[in-house]
Structures are given as structure tokens and as C-alpha cells.
Amino acid sequence: MSNVPSVYEPISPNLTESRARIEAIFSDCHDLTIKEWSYGRDLEYTSVGILLDTLSQNYRTTYMSALIQDLSPLLGALDKTLTPDKLARYWEAQGVSTHSAHLLDSIEQVTKSLTDGNVVFLLDGWDRAIGCEMPGVQTRSVSEPTMEPVVFGPHNSTIEDLKTNIGLLRALIKTPKLKFKLLHAGEYSRRDIVYGYLSDTVPPEDLKLFEQRLSGIEDKEILDTTYLEEWVEESVFTPFPQVRYTERPDVATSALLTGKIIVLVQGSPTMMICPGLFIDFFSTSEDYYQRTVFSTLIRWLRVIAFIMAITLPSLYVALSTFHTELIPTVLLLAILDTREKIPFPAFVEALLMEFFFELLREAGIRLPRPIGSAVSIVGALVIGQAAIQAKIASPIMVIVVALTGIASFAMPQYNLAIALRVLRFPLMILAATLGGFGLMIGYFLILLHLTKLKSLSQEYLTGFTPLDWSRMLSSVIFRQPIRSMLKKARPGSGGSR
After folding, report:
1. Vertex 341: Cα angle to 337 and 343 (nearest 5)
2. Cβ atoms 31, 166 nearer than 8 A
3. How far from the centroid of its chain's Cα atoms is residue 236's Cα?
4. Helix, strand or coil for residue 338?
5. Among 2, 220, 256, 358, which is least packed, fewest CB within 10 Å?
């Protein structure tokens, strides 16, 4: 960072020096565009126009339009005898020729103007600059995110155009410290891949390891952001996700502010956030748009839902098969009454119902949207009622499977819910063979696996091991008031949104 010039420096009259300063400040920003412009009788003088092309619409046309609009009166008045001194005296004495342009006196003002989506002109021999406003920042029509519906907060989402998505992020984080590096992948698709980070918040070891893992990807055909997950993650065969996905610019912005790296691919509306720690999967951006008490209550529900989604079927199998003495007598009699004439043991019954439920869930996802939800709901009701009447499953088992499915839907991240779906089946096998002892073995193996897992350079259970009560409580159990969170905010210190 010591090689990067200060943004508070004045603009140098030497155009080459000023240009080098701006290029150093916006280093590793592939969307920084610099165009040269010559003027004078023999075109002996040089000027440059600088802009961030992801923040502008039709930036090449806008660039020429702004240039002609601002300089046309001057060209007509002074013919072809323009010199830097004449231009400087004209603009300093009379101001710029349009209300959408303004004079800039320092590198700081140039930087701010660029990150606001303006085009900046520098003249050789002049210690000031001109910032011309662009017609508009790159945005998309407002629409609800498909995978992350929201009640409060921004309702826009990313789309398949890479420049649009980068522009949405640039519009929310207006600083040259937001870096975007460009990669090209694939011999045939030539897909553009961009990863972004805030240079003063991202852990250097995370960034270094991330770039090492992406090395050699240039000759691979990458068609979607999800293709990169196995390149970035530590363990390919673990059911637990080590990255997060989002379609919402506010979620990606919050992740950048807490030291995360985001990845975007041309043609994909999904952004990947890494590293994804276990503690990150229990909070959403909407937690910070709701009142503290309500957000805390929702987080409690998520923790309970997580325990139910991974535990409920196997716990029922263990209790009903091996540990009936732990069930209250009245409840045990009710269970025995409902299981009368059921030809299968509890494990087979649970396995069948889980299979039917997963089948209905997949059918509801793959069918066209207008009929998918109707088929999944009607199918669950019909099959559940028919299974009870046919004595294939007991009502209590239908309730257990339904509650487990609903609990998995309460997980903020879909890929974490998939991990819980995968783990339910081996836990049910352990519960059916060894009872409660088998469950303890299963939980111990899961915990042991999580303690060995890493996401980039960070431990997957950061916040739990070593135990950090403040981070765990604020990121999982409680949502602190916004005022106290903003006062204590440090890069990478709080829970991510």
C-alpha cells in the first residue's frame, strides 16, 4: 500500500505523472478506461479522458458526446490555435461550458468523480481537471431476486451481464480500494471471470490462496459461477458448503466490507462469496433491515430449525427403536397406537417417507413454476394421507418428516440445506443400528470433520473454535443494535451479511 500515492495530493501539471498517479490508485481495476485526445494546430498537445466503464451506459458514445458538448464552443471561438495555457485561462476564468461539468483541484476530487461515474479530462501543463457527469449509472430494471426474496431492503438483483453487475457494486461502494481483476477462461466460450475485493479489508493470505487456486483455469470452459466452487474450496467431497451465493448487490456489498472476495462470471446472475464460514450461513442481510428483537427471534428459529433438520428423523428412530423408556408414557402409548399394523420398522418407515418427500421436492423444482408448487403441495397431502390409510406409515412419522422438511427450508442458504439433507440418511442408519450411541458417534464425526475443514485460509468453525462468544452471539444468536455495530465495526471483525 505504500507505493500507492495519496488521494490528497494536488494534480500535477505533468500529464504523464498525473495519469500514473491515477493508474496506481486504481491498480488492479480492469474497468479503468483511459483515452487520449490530441489538440492544437498540429495536434501537438495531449489530453486524456478517464472513466470507469462499468459505471456508465454506452460509455464510448457518452465519452465523445461529453467531450464535444463541453469543447464545441471553445473550438469555434479559438479555431485551431488551442494551447494548454489558453484552455486553462478559459476554464478558470469562465468556468466550464455546461452545468454537467465541474473543475477538479486534487487527486482526491478526481478519484471521487470517477467513482461517481463521471468522465475526467486532464490536460498536459494544467494542474486542474474537468469532471463531466455521465447520463446515468449502469443499473437494471427493479426486480425481485429469484433465490433470495426480501421484505425490507433493496429489491434489485444482479443479471447475466457482467458490466452491469460490477456497475451495481461500484454504485454502492464508491472507492478506488474496490478492486476488480479480470480473467479469461475457455478456448471456445472465452468467458470473462471477475473477482473483486476491498484492498484494505481482505486478509492478504485469503487473497493469495484464492489466486493460487484459480491459477490454471484459463484453459477450462467455465459457463457459470458455480463451476468455480470446486476450484476455490478446500475439500471437494464434504457436504458442507465453503462458499456462499447471492443475487443481491447489498449482500455482496456487505460481504466486501467484511473482508470477503466475490466472484462474477459473464452470463451468470449469481455472485459467489468466499470464504464461506459455518457461522456465515446463519445470518442474512434482512436481519439488519428488521428491528433488533424481531431479528434475534428469527435467528433463534434458524438455530432450532438447523437442529431439527439434521436430528429429528434419526432421533425419532433411536427413541422408538432403542430408548422407549425416555418417551413419556402418554406419548409412547399414542405412538404405539398409531404404529399398530404398520408392517415396517421405524427406520424403513422413515426411509420411505424421506424418499417420497425428496422426490416431491425435486419434482416441484423441475416442473414449470405455475404447476410446480401445486403438484408438490397436492402430492404431499395425497401421498401422506394415502400412506396413513394404507398402513404404510404412521401419522407421527408423517409429522416428523414434514417438520424436518420445513426446518430445512428455513435455512438462509440453499446449499447448507442440501448438506443437511445428505447427512440425515447416514444419521438415520446409525440410529437404527446403535440407537443413541450411534447418534453420538455420528455427531462426533461431523464435529471432527468440521474442525478439520477450512475455507481458504480460515478455519471453517471460526467463532466456535476457538470459542469467540462475542462473534458467535452477534452472528448467530443475537443481532446487536445497528448503532453499537457501526461503532464497533472493523474489517473482518463482525458477522457477515
Report:
1. 125
2. yes
3. 20
4. helix
5. 2
Of the listed ranges 247-251, 255-259, 474-478, the least confidently predicted one is: 474-478
Please name the residue ranges forming H helices in 35-94: 59-78, 84-94
Q: 222: which DSSP letter?
A: -
pLDDT score, position 68: 46
To 10 degrees, what angle do helices 414-434 and 292-321 make?
A: 30
The set of cell numbers assigned to 36 is 487520449
Please state, in angstroms and rounded to a whole number, the distance separating the CA atoms of residues 30 and 193: 11
Closest C-alpha to 435, from 307, 309, 328, 321:
321
pLDDT at 318: 92
Cβ–Cβ under 8 Å, residues 190 and 184: yes
Please give the C-alpha separations between residue 189 and each of 87, 193, 270, in angstroms, as whole numbers.
Answer: 47, 12, 18
CB atoms within 10 A of CB 432: 20
Distance CA 147, CA 162 (A): 19
Q: Which three cell numbers stand for residue 490?
A: 472493523
In which element (H, E) is residue 423 found? Answer: helix 414-434
Distance CA(371)–CA(64), nearest Å, equals 51
Yes or no: say if 401 and 361 are a contact pair by the CB < 8 Å rule: no
Taking the C-alpha atoms of residue 426 and residue 126, their distance in angstroms, rounded to an integer, is: 72
Q: Rounded to 5, what percent of the chain is helix, strand, coil? A: 50, 15, 35
Q: Is pLDDT larger for residue 487 or for residue 285? A: 285
The three-class DSSP label of residue 279 is helix
Half-sphere exposure of 442 toward its Cβ, with a 13 Å CA cutoff? 23
What are the grid coordinates assigned to 487, written together?
461503532
Instruction: Give pTM, 2 decimals.
Output: 0.79
Which residues are within 8 A (CB) of 174 and not within 5 positions of it... i.e. 6 or more apart? 112, 115, 116
User: What mean pLDDT do residues 176-204 have?
Assistant: 90
Q: How far apart are CA 480 and CA 452, in angstroms?
A: 30
Nearest to 282 by CA among 149, 90, 473: 473
Is residue 209's pLDDT more than 90? yes
Task: State residue 129's pLDDT score.
Answer: 87
Residue 364 contacts residue 356 (beta carbons within 8 Å): no
